[in-house]
Amino acid sequence: MTAQPDSLSALLGGRRGALDATVPPLAFAAGWLAGDRIAWGAAAAVFAAVVLGSVRLAKGHKVTAVVGSLTAVVAGALIALYTGRAEDFFLIQLLSNGASALAWAVSILVRWPLLGVVVGLVLGQKARWRQDPDLLRAYGRASWVWVFAQYVLRTAVFAVLWWSGNVVALTVARVALSWPLVAAVVAVSAVVLRKSLPADHPGLRHPRVPAPVT
Asked: Which regions span the lipid bilayer (predicted)?
C-alpha cells in the first residue's frame, strides 16, 4: 500500500497545481488593492497566469493544461470586469467546486467513483479496478472524503465570502483551501483507502480481477 499516497498526489499536479491555484488570485488582490480598480487586479492576475504558463511550456508541460489554467484566470477577470464586482473574479471557483461536489457524489452513487477513475488512469489500469469489489468499495468510501472535505467545504466558504463581497477574505480562502486542503484530503483519503481494503489485498496497483469463466 505504499504506492497510495504517491498515486493520489500524482493526480494533483504537485507544485504546478499549487502555484496555479494561488499566484493569480494573489496577483488579482494585490493589483486591486494597489490601484483600487478591478482592471488593475485583472491585468495583474492575467499577467501572473501568462508568466506561469510560459514557464510551464518552457519546461515541457502539456499545452492543454497550460491553456486550461490560463483560460480560467482570463474568464474570472472578464467576469469581474463585466459585472464591476471584484468578488466575481472568484465566481468560477465557486461554481466549479459546487459542480465538482455534485459530480463526485453522483459518481459514487452510480458505482464509478471518480477517485478510482482518476487513479486508475494514472496507473494505466483503465477500468480494471472496477472488477475488484474491494477496490470499488474502497474508492467509493475515499471519494466521499473529496466530496465533503474539499468540494462541499470550498463551496460553502466561497459562497459566504462571495455573498458578503469580501475580496481579501476570498483571496485568503482561495490560498488556504488550495494546496493545504488538498494535501490533507489526499492524506485522509489514502488512509480511508488503506483501512477499507482487506489486510491481504495487494494494493491499488494490483486489482484482484476474477478469472474468466471457461
From this structure: 38-58, 65-82, 102-123, 144-164, 176-193
Q: What b/e readout covers 115-148, taking b as 16+ CB neighbours within 10 angstroms?
A: bbbbbbeebebeeebbebeebbebbbbbbbbbbe
Judge whether residue 39 has pLDDT over 90.
yes
Cα–Cα distance for residue pair 22/2, rounded to 1 Å: 29
Short-list 181, 154, 166, CA closest to 98: 154
Query: Which distant-in-sequence residues (6+ apart) come within 8 Å of 61 by Cβ?
Result: 16
pLDDT for 66 equals: 85
Q: What is the pLDDT of residue 211?
A: 65
How many CA atoms does the CB half-sphere of 54 hold within 13 Å?
A: 6
Cα 120 to the center of its chain, rounded Å = 17
Burial class (CB in 10 A: 0-12, 13-18, 19+), 208: middle
- Hey, where are the domains in the chain? 3-196
In this model, does residue 85 exceed pLDDT 60? yes
Report residue 43 as a C-alpha cell.
491585468
User: What counts of helices (H) and strands (E) characterise the chain?
Assistant: 10, 0
